[in-house]
Specification:
- The chain has about 325 residues and is of the alpha/beta class.
- Helices cover about 35% and strands about 25% of the residues.
- It is built from 9 helices and 14 strands.
- An 8-stranded mixed sheet has the order 8-9-10-7-11-12-13-14, with helices on one face.
- Helix 1 crosses helix 8, helix 5 runs antiparallel to helix 9 and helix 7 packs across helix 9.
- The longest helix is centred in the C-terminal third of the chain and has 20 residues.
- It is globular.
- It starts with 6 loop residues before the first strand and ends in a 7-residue tail after the last helix.
């Protein structure tokens, strides 16, 4: 009989995304229970534990990994620490849900495969959007032929934050817009086409002082069509995804940061009325995609279903990102390895 008890989670670090979004959401889940949090600053860990009702706080990541009661680890550490601490967690016998991007390069991400296979734990990338019902509905509409043949995916994701002290402003730590948010439209395009891009091309504008990519435009060519996206960490906040077929298009209103307290809408439009009056509005129920992500990973640990984004999928995404960075330098189409 399947063990249906909640998986006991530990969290590495006190990152804002963990404290404000992921932990509270997981605490509302049926299959997940957060029992420990660690920080290099014990006082910070204790303050987070007290605020969120977490039983144990540790002053080092190693102490948390040594806790026999912790079954799985959520890793929201800075990008350059994703792989080393995910490997250490796996070697300690913990399953690992690691924030995106899972690594700094595809080559680095591949080292996680050996760790997963050697230890037998689950390791996955935390693309919470893949658990939201709106994206399941998009995939359902495409598979049902509602837009005809899929030919083009277009996405945009931007926000404005120019802060020299922000970890995302450091090139050596994997900062910049492409790694931070451009990874979303890339991942979704690969998932919707159900294929890897044959080749990619990119134009990148970098911050003149910090050197990080602040504006990126990219194209991915697939056997069945194309994906185009723009992303920026120094533009007005906005996000949108459109999926074009030979007979209709789908527009996703809030594709990435779907609110946990409001319904989401997608639109199905056959182009018959350019004012949009003829489009079909599909409203999805209120859910918290972080709750769904945690529970789906926990269920996979218990032997029910699979993780939302596999390690192989994560490596494919990093390969596309690597090729886009190369393309910006070579000014040519580049082939992901």
């Amino acid at each position: 009989m399947t063990d249906q008890s909640p998986v006991r989670w530990g969290v590495l670090g006190a990152a804002n995304i963990a404290l404000k979004k992921v932990i509270p959401a997981m605490q509302r889940g049926r299959w997940s229970r957060v029992v420990a949090i660690a920080s290099r600053d014990l006082a910070k860990a204790r303050a987070a534990a007290d605020a969120l009702g977490i039983a144990r706080a540790y002053g080092s990541y190693d102490e948390l990994l040594a806790d026999p009661d912790v079954e799985a680890v959520y890793n929201p550490l800075p990008n350059h620490l994703h792989v080393p601490w995910s490997i250490r967690a796996a070697e300690a016998g913990k399953h690992v849900l690691c924030e995106k991007p899972i690594a700094l390069t595809a080559g680095e991400a591949r080292t996680l495969l050996a760790a997963r296979d050697r230890t037998g734990v689950q390791i996955a990338e935390a693309f919470m959007v893949r658990t939201h019902p709106q994206w399941a509905k998009v995939r359902e509409l495409i598979d049902a032929g509602r837009i005809g043949e899929l030919r083009l995916v277009v996405g945009h994701f931007s926000y404005y934050r120019r802060d020299f002290d922000d970890i995302r402003s450091r090139v050596e730590f994997g900062g910049g817009a492409l790694m931070d948010i451009g990874c979303y439209p890339i991942m979704l395009s690969r998932w919707l086409f159900n294929a890897e891009p044959r080749d990619v091309i990119a134009q990148i504008e970098r911050d003149p002082d910090m050197g990080v990519d602040r504006l990126v435009s990219g194209i991915l060519r697939f056997a069945a069509g194309q994906a185009a996206f723009t992303c920026s960490g120094q533009l007005v906040p906005h996000q949108r995804m459109q999926i074009f077929g030979t007979r209709a298009r789908i527009e996703v209103e809030i594709p990435f940061n779907a609110p946990p307290d409001a319904s989401c809408r997608i639109y199905l439009d056959d182009g018959g009325d350019l004012t949009g009056r003829g489009r079909e509005t599909i409203e999805l129920p209120v859910v918290d995609q972080y709750t769904l992500q945690g529970d789906r990973f926990s269920k996979a640990i218990r032997g029910v279903g699979t993780v939302p984004v596999s390690l192989e999928d994560a490596i494919g995404n990093m390969a596309a990102i690597d090729a886009l960075f190369r393309s910006a330098e070579t000014r040519r189409w580049e082939v992901p390895p």
